[in-house]
Design brief:
heterotrimer; A mainly alpha (about 400); B mainly alpha (about 250); C alpha/beta (about 325); A: about 400 residues; mainly alpha; MetI-like fold; three-stranded antiparallel sheet; 3 strands; C: about 325 residues; alpha/beta; Rossmann fold; CBS domain Like; 2 domains; six-stranded mixed sheet; four-stranded antiparallel sheet; 15 helices; about 40% helix; globular
Chain lengths: ~400, ~250, ~325
């Protein structure tokens, strides 16, 4: 009986503990103390030797590192807005301090006499980073900060990371891996972006044309969606493989295609497959966007004497733009991932590092390929998402 | 009513025909591949062998299915469980974080997740299962959340007002109503996982991706075609099963 | 019997319901009426503990509602809401049988009960039993909702604007049916609405709420004749009050015995309301009406003077 009453009093006087933040920080604490924070290897191929956080600066160093975590825990216990802001500051500070801590660890643990020696981030470091990022998301949601503000919070740790990468942290494995193949890496990024851009561009044009055709002819709609759905179901590796044979044949037997660079492996089948995959989300979104414009608005535009072309260009298309852009976003993010697979058939791009690294069991090389792909996908998602929001806002005013 | 009933009756007899047909094609392709030697010889006239023989196609299919099934099963249990947990009173605090995580996570390319799993978990079948499980969770969590949130609040209110317990409400009302959306999530998850598992052949799992990878490495297009054909058929078979399970309305 | 003693509900700082006391006798139809946000729905939902009250006591047949398990309490009460809350994936029959099934009645008895209820609410078993809620019209869906609320034959029925989303004609039909049902079943009903005409038509006890408090409660006629304050008066319709009151009185209560004079041509049933009688006089330009019984036999007469004057003697 008294349960309800107590709850209410609790609500009125002091806020309930933020369970999410508490559990995240507890988990961070456990991961930081319990798992290997870094690993050190004498060279590229030998698996690293794990080191826990206290190996770096001893117990006292560990305790100093734990203070901000405990502070966030304490703040999360009775969270009002002010305390959550403090917690947010602390989490950002911890993220920013991570590279500095790594530099300290490198100085302590890596033998300066071994030029090949390198230090990797261990499970504890990755898990800690992941959990702190989650805490950041949670705090952003609780404080209802806008998306751009949330992203700009990440700038602080990023600047710190770039700074430390430039002026310290020489032994960090990723950095060494990058320096060892700097040219290849930059070329790979360019190839990757080129492929993604080409695929998205082509499928945008084709997609809009197809969607318009589908609006005009109902039979085209059923058939078109059936084919595109079918394509989307075929696993990427299989589609790349299936394209290999016919394109190889074309490249071998048709001269002008061969001159264009068409062959079984390489960019041609990759681009073809990427466009195939990109078409479904693009066509679907364009079709739905154009189809779902409020008929009342179209009716009004016609009634005012706008021509068909004017209605389409000035009314239907602008109103459909956000949903079409949404299609571009989905397509781009998907294409960034699929292009990585295309490396298997020699299309180049960052996937090359992943598969070469996997082949040589060189995990740092795998990371060098996988992390930028991840970052590219996130950035594309954020940018295109923001662009969509922008067109939506324009529509509202 | 008559409409629903007639649909059900007409589906009763024939609804499994399509998946059955696909699986028959898949199985006969697995078993009968050696008989197509002449055909593959056309593609690859100079190679010594044109039929992938390092492992039996049926075994590869079995392993592929096993990996996907184990990952999918675990993903369904964990994903639906998590989504249910965060929509209950006790877990509500976690809802915003889980929802955001599920939507951010879906921008991660599956290949990148697979690649990142290897440094942490090592080579072999287990890291692939874990990577598939992790990635497969996202669409399931996301759709389960959408399905549960989509239940008409009036229905929920009435159910509670009639004296249903939380468990009864969940089992008899919320989950059945959310089922089509949840199923769509599982379908997406499994489709992606079949594709990602094939790439798993590069990190030491032996499955239908093997012939493709080995064909690419050795420059044997016939191997590639065999693997691609079988994976494509597998994807279509599994997808047709889901297409049947899913009501037309959803 | 339902009794609320000094009940409050606070959400944070604000009190949605503030120290209200209310007693609904067995077989009484109590209507809570007021503008939106006045706390009437909150009050209703506290009775079946969809909302826990913060202070005071709520008793059902003399027992504190917190002595029951929530589910047990709710299964003892029928509950009908505006959006019906019918389960879209269940047939009409299964929806109606919900609470009996929760109470683990044997299937045969549930089937019997569902048939009985559908007959009672004028839903043909053959036509509707297998239908799904989306195939029903608004009025049909609401009937099913009421049938579901009545399924386990609860003593108490809680209804939250059940007819709010219906068109005026369907609404009036269902109101009439509810009155007839209530005359037969003698349930204890708490009914929430913001429609004063509906409230006046249905209520044995009318409770006017505002700002989480009860402004006035009593028989509808009491409120009409002596509104406690300007708010109640305006809510009751201000200048329309005379007509509203006339709508609550029947011709039978006011008529005079047959006089030796010529029987008037215009006839009206003794069960008609005074409002209807007045309307007929205006429409037919008649100052006198013949009052007839159910067999259409004259039993009395009503003149405009009686109709108007009679009210002043009350």
């Amino acid at each position: 009986m008294s349960r309800g009453v107590n709850e209410e009093k609790g609500n009125r006087n002091v806020p309930r503990p933020n369970v999410v933040l508490l559990s995240l920080l507890m988990a961070t604490l456990v991961a930081w103390c319990g798992l290997d924070a870094v690993s050190v290897a004498p060279n590229r191929i030998v698996p690293g030797q794990g080191h826990a956080a206290w190996d770096v600066a001893g117990w006292s160093g560990l305790v100093i590192g734990l203070v901000p975590m405990l502070a966030v825990l304490a703040l999360a216990w009775r969270p009002d807005r002010q305390r959550l802001r403090w917690a947010l500051g602390l989490v950002v500070a911890m993220l920013a301090a991570l590279p500095a801590w790594l530099a300290l660890a490198a100085a302590q643990l890596v033998d300066a006499d071994l030029p090949q020696a390198r230090m990797g981030v261990g499970a504890g470091g990755w898990v800690g980073l992941f959990l702190l990022l989650l805490a950041l998301i949670e705090l952003r949601t609780r404080l209802s900060l806008s998306r751009p503000l949330g992203w700009s919070l990440l700038l602080v740790p990023l600047v710190s990371l770039v700074g430390w990468l430039t002026f310290g942290l020489e032994p960090l494995a990723l950095r060494q891996e990058f320096l060892a193949r700097r040219d290849g890496f930059i070329a790979a990024i360019a190839e990757h972006l080129l492929l993604v851009g080409a695929a998205v561009g082509i499928s945008l044009v084709l997609g809009v044309v197809l969607a318009l055709a589908m609006r005009r002819w109902a039979r085209c709609r059923t058939f078109g969606f059936a084919v595109l759905n079918f394509l989307q179901t075929i696993p990427s590796l299989a589609l790349f493989g299936l394209l290999l044979a016919p394109l190889a044949w074309l490249g071998a037997h048709v001269e002008w295609l061969a001159a264009l660079g068409v062959s079984g492996i390489g960019a041609a089948p990759a681009l073809l497959a990427l466009v195939g995959y990109s078409l479904l989300p693009m066509v679907r979104n364009t079709f739905v966007a154009l189809d779902e414009v409020d008929p009342g608005v179209i009716d009004a535009a016609r009634g005012m004497g706008m021509s068909r072309g004017q209605v389409f260009r000035q009314v239907r298309l602008p109103l459909a733009a956000p949903v079409i852009l949404e299609g571009v976003r989905i397509t781009t993010v998907q294409a960034i991932g699929l292009t990585a697979v295309a490396a298997l058939i020699g299309a180049g791009g960052l996937g090359t590092f992943i598969f070469q690294g996997l082949g040589q069991a060189a995990m740092d090389m795998v990371l060098l390929g996988a992390l930028p792909i991840l970052v590219m996908a996130l950035i594309a998602d954020a940018l295109l998402g923001a662009l969509t929001e922008l067109t939506r806002q324009g529509e509202a005013t | 009513m008559s409409e629903a009933v007639s649909r059900r009756v007409s589906r009763g007899g024939t609804r499994w025909l399509v998946p059955l047909a696909w699986s028959l094609v898949l199985l006969s392709a697995c078993v009968g591949m050696p008989w197509l030697e002449g055909l593959f010889r056309l593609v690859e006239p100079d190679s010594r062998s044109v039929i992938y023989a390092r492992a039996d196609f049926l075994t590869l299919l079995g392993r592929h299915l096993l990996v996907v099934a184990v990952a999918a099963l675990a993903a369904v249990i964990i994903g639906v469980g998590a989504a249910v947990a965060v929509t209950r009173c006790a877990g509500r605090d976690f809802l915003p974080l889980v929802a955001q995580l599920a939507s951010i996570g879906q921008t991660f390319p599956p290949v990148a997740v697979l690649a990142l799993a290897v440094p942490v978990l090592g080579f072999g079948t287990l890291p692939i299962i874990v990577a598939l499980l992790l990635y497969g969770l996202l669409p399931i969590v996301r759709n389960t959340l959408a399905g549960l949130e989509g239940v008409d609040p009036g229905v929920r209110e009435a159910a509670r007002g009639m004296g249903m317990t939380g468990g009864q409400l969940l089992r008899q009302v919320e989950l059945p109503l959310a089922a089509p959306v949840i199923l769509a999530g599982i379908r997406t998850s499994v489709t992606i996982n079949i594709a990602t598992a094939a790439i798993g052949a590069t990190v030491g799992a032996s499955n239908l991706g093997d012939p493709i990878i080995s064909g690419i490495v050795n420059g044997n297009t016939a191997y590639v075609l065999q693997g691609a054909l079988l994976i494509g058929l597998l994807a279509l078979t599994v997808d047709s099963v889901f297409a049947r399970l899913q009501p037309a309305a959803a | 019997m339902i009794e609320l003693i000094g009940v409050s509900k606070r959400f944070g700082e604000t009190a949605a319901v503030d120290d209200i006391s209310l007693r609904v006798e067995r077989g009484e139809l109590c209507v809570l009426v007021g503008t939106s946000g006045c706390g009437k729905s909150t009050t209703l939902r506290m009775i079946n503990r969809l909302i826990e009250h913060s202070d005071g006591e709520i008793h059902i047949d003399g027992q504190q509602i917190r002595d029951f398990r929530e589910e047990t309490l709710r299964r003892r009460m029928g509950y009908a809401i505006q959006s019906t809350g019918l389960f879209p994936h269940w047939t009409v029959a299964r929806n109606i049988g919900l609470v009996p099934r929760l109470l683990k009645w044997p299937p045969a008895r549930i089937r019997e009960r569902v048939e009985e209820l559908m007959a009672m609410l004028g839903l043909s078993m053959d036509e509707f039993a297998g239908k799904y809620p989306r195939q029903l019209s608004g009025g049909q869906a609401q009937r099913v909702g009421v049938a579901r609320a009545l399924a386990a034959d609860p003593d108490i029925l809680l209804m939250d604007e059940p007819f709010g989303a219906l068109d005026p004609i369907t609404r009036e039909t269902l109101q009439q049916e509810l009155r007839e049902l209530q005359a037969r079943l003698q349930k204890t009903i708490v009914f929430v609405t913001h429609d004063m005409d509906e409230a006046l038509r249905l209520a044995d006890r009318l409770v006017v709420m505002d700002g989480g408090r009860i402004r006035q409660q009593g028989h509808p006629l009491e409120l009409l004749r002596e509104p406690a304050d300007a708010f109640v008066e305006s809510l009751l319709g201000g200048e329309d009050r005379g007509l509203k009151e006339a709508a609550l009185l029947t011709v039978g209560e006011r008529m005079m015995p047959l006089s030796p004079r010529l029987l008037p041509r215009e006839r009206i049933s003794r069960h008609a309301t005074l409002r209807e009688a007045l309307s007929m006089m205006l429409w037919r330009h008649a100052e006198r009406l013949a009052v007839v019984d159910d067999e259409d036999m004259p039993v009395g007469e009503l003149s405009l003077r009686q109709l108007v004057g009679a009210k002043h003697h009350e």
